[in-house]
Write a structure and sequence with these properties.
This protein is mainly alpha-helical and 141 residues long. It has a single domain, classed as Orthogonal Bundle (Arc Repressor Mutant, subunit A), CATH 1.10.10.10. It is built from 7 helices and 2 strands, in the order ααααββααα. Strands 1-2 form a two-stranded antiparallel ribbon. The protein is globular, with a radius of gyration of 17 Å.
Length: 141
């Protein structure tokens, strides 16, 4: 079952990556932009923890996102050795367009699988999220 869910997630991510390519994005970059948009004074360390992407890969990603003018680095006023990341207006605009792409790709699942299978997949994902919440809260399965 887990392999099936993982495979379904990978297939959706691949489909989304193809659709996001004209924006200069992929699902990992969208996840980073989302995290930056939701985290004031977001530091690279915060992003590594939130996304599970290692710092070296994030640093390379920041260069590309900065070159496209989607993000800016701001020096930390209290500690000039560190910086935080912010979305630019252009970054906010492209993130909104990327969300639409991802919603469209995810919205096609019932069409592609049929309503019954899509509902079953959704139910399985909800159950997995509940298990994960219990593990985090209580340390139990």
């Amino acid at each position: 079952m887990i392999n099936s869910i993982t495979l379904a997630g990978q297939l959706l991510a691949r489909r989304a990556d193809v659709e996001l390519r004209p924006l200069g994005l992929n699902t990992r970059r969208v996840a980073v932009l989302e995290a930056i948009s939701q985290t004031p004074q977001c530091r690279p360390t915060d992003l590594a923890l939130m996304t599970g992407i290692d710092k070296a890969a994030l640093t390379a990603m920041f260069k590309g996102l900065s070159a496209r003018r989607y993000i800016v680095r701001r020096s930390n006023a209290d500690d000039h050795r560190t910086y935080h990341l912010e979305l630019t207006r252009r970054g906010l605009d492209v993130l909104e367009r990327a969300r639409e792409v991802v919603w469209r790709v995810e919205g096609a699942v019932p069409e592609d699988l049929g309503e019954a299978l899509a509902d079953a997949l959704h139910g399985a994902c909800i159950m997995l999220l509940e298990v994960e919440k219990r593990r985090e809260l209580y340390g139990v399965d």
